[in-house]
Each structure stands twice: as structure tokens, then as C-alpha cells.
Amino acid sequence: MRARTGTAAGAAMVTIAAVSLAIALAWGSVPLSLGQVLAGLLDSSSGIPHDIIWQLRLPRALAAFACGGLLALAGVLLQALLRNALADSYILGVSSGASLGALSAITLGFGAALVNTAALTGAIAAIAIVFGVTFRGGKGSGWNVYRLLLSGVVLSAGFAALTSLILVIAPSAQLKGMLFWLMGDLSYAENPLAACALLFVLTLGATALAVRLDILGLGDVKARSLGVSVVALQLMVFFGAALATVAAVMLGGAIGFVGLMMPHAVRLMGITRHRMLVPVSVLAGGSFLTLADTCARTIMAPQQLPVGIFTALIGVPCMLYLLTRRA
Fold first, then answer.
1. Does residue 50 sit in helix, strand or coil?
2. Helix (H, G, I), strand (E, B) or coil at 1
3. What domains are defined for the chain?
């Protein structure tokens, strides 16, 4: 029964993912029909539809899907690692570190390339600090998941305070760009192929670890008794989640709510085993963020809104409905 539920949910999410991408290609300040979308995808002589799809909408739609999938995957991995359903993709302080780096670069007047470099530096610094505080090597090697959770929360609070300080002292002309970065913005995601490839590889890797992730949820002692190398598995999960989060933040900024909500929504559909939880959550996260970004760039077109606003506006009622239905 559970296998049939997972298969049906997986098939439904594949369909939803395809529909979300089709909507992203068709909707915008210049609406396109389904026929125009197909012609633009397949025929380079179709003129304006071809240019709109290949130069504007398709790269952004793929970026949104990859970003949402990476955030959802990171959420699944961290919830498995911490055995805590409230963990999400930003619990490691990656988003706060990247935000601090990016906003510092924007304040200094750096260009887009240096802003991304500064964001990457801040994210890596956050990962290094959390890992250094949490993991103990040598004779007493081990992984303290509670220390990981607390260090991530504390580090996020510190970075958030410094980010607030930068917002206070920054020139007013730069505040709008900073706020867009903090709330998520996919308008500058021009080449999403690397993120899509990374999402595919990480999803395959996490699915291959599915049985061991299920066992890890039973506790460290039980997992060891069943032959699982707990420390090695925890390290793989930690760095896999960190890599997914860094890639998502570099692609779309600090987009919240996806990594926390998507795994919950999938579990509420009756999928708990990681063999199906991982790919279905990735498809759900990608579809959700693609639809949210389509709303962000369409509702007040040609003006674009931060996509993070729509992840909350769309996600909160959907999540409440699922919780009520489950109850």
C-alpha cells in the first residue's frame, strides 16, 4: 500500500513539475499560448516567441526549479541528520553567512561577480565554523547533532545582527537591491545548467543512501548495530546538504520556507521512506519555486517582486491545508 502511494505521488509530482515549467514559459509580461511555446522551443524561425523563451524564460524557469529542488533536498538531508522535523536548509548558517558577504560587497559598490564571490566566501565560512565546532576527530571522533543545531542557530543570529547593521549604515540607493537579495531574486540567474547538473547528482547520491538514512533515524546506536558507518554517513549528509544550500543561495539569494515546508508536505502525503521522499521532495520543491517565481515576475509585470514573498504567501495556506487534512 505504501509503495503504491509513493509511486502515485511520484507520478503526480512529475506531472506537476512539467506543468509548472510550462506555465513559467507561457506566463509573463508577453503571454504566450501553448502552441507558441512549443514553436518557440522547437523552431528557431518563430521569431519573438523563440527569443523570449530561450533568452529569458527558460533559463529563469530552470534556475527556479534547480534552486527549489536544492533547497528541498537540503531540508530532507538535514532533517535526517538532526532527526528533527523543524530543521531546514538554512540551519547551518549558510544563508546568513552568504547574506553578510553579499551585502558587504554591495555596500562597497562591487559588481555582480564580486558580490557572488563574497556571498560564496561567507557561506563557506559559515560551513567551516559550524563543522569545526561540531565535529570532533581523533580518538574520540564523533558527531554531536545537538551541537550542530545550536551552533547553526547561534551563528545565524550573529550573522543576522551584522547584516542588520549593514542595512542601517548602507546608502539608501543600495537598500532596494539588498532587500531583493535577502528576500530572494532569480532575475540574474542566467546560466542554471551547472545547478541543474548538481541537483541531479546530489539527488542520485541521496537516493542511493536512502536505506541508510532510514536506519539513521532509529538512532546512532541502533544504526551501528545494523552495520551502518554512522560518522561517515553523517559527514556525507552534512556536506551534501551544505553544498546544495550554497548552490541554491548563489543562484537565487536567501529564499526561505522551501527547505522546511516541502519535506513536510511530502510526508503528509504518506511518504516517509527516503527512497521516495528524496526525489518527490526535490520535484515538489522545484515545482513550488518555479510557480512562485512565475507569480513574482508576472503579477505586477513589468515590475518584478522578490520571490521569497510568494514562497510564504503560497506555501503557508497550502501547508495549513495539508496539516488540517492530515488531522
1. helix
2. coil
3. 2-326 (1.10.3470.10)
- What's the rounded Cα separation, in Å, for the pair 38 and 211? 40
CB 231: neighbour CB atoms within 10 A?
A: 16
User: Model confidence over 142-184: pLDDT tens digits?
Assistant: 667 778 888 888 888 899 899 999 988 888 878 877 888 888 8
CA 191 distance to own-chain centroid: 17
What does the DSSP assignment read for 257-301? Answer: SHHHHHHHHHHHTT--SHHHHHHHHHHHHHHHHHHHHHHHHHTTT
Phi, then psi, of 32 in degrees rounded to 5: -125, 145
CB 299 within 8 A of CB 247: no
CA distances from 199 to 69, 273, 274, 282 (A): 7, 20, 16, 9
Q: Residues 6 or more apart from 296 whose CB is under 8 A from it?
A: 186, 304, 305, 306, 307, 309, 310
pLDDT, tens digit (0-9, with 9 covering 90-100), for 82-101: 887 777 777 778 888 888 98
Residue 307 CA to residue 296 CA, distance in Å, equals: 5
Q: 224 and 230 in contact (C-beta within 8 Å)?
A: yes
- The answer to whether residues 191 and 252 touch, using CB atoms and an 8 Å cutoff, is no
SS3 content of the chain, % helix, strand, coil (to 5): 80, 0, 20
Evaluate the CA torsion angle 99, 61, 270, 211 in order and state its sign.
negative
Residues in Cβ contact with 289 at an 8 Å cutoff, skipping those fewer than 6 apart = 64, 65, 67, 68, 71, 252, 255, 258, 307, 311
Scanning the structure block, which residue is given the C-alpha cell 528541498?
72
Separation CA 324–CA 306 (nearest Å) = 29
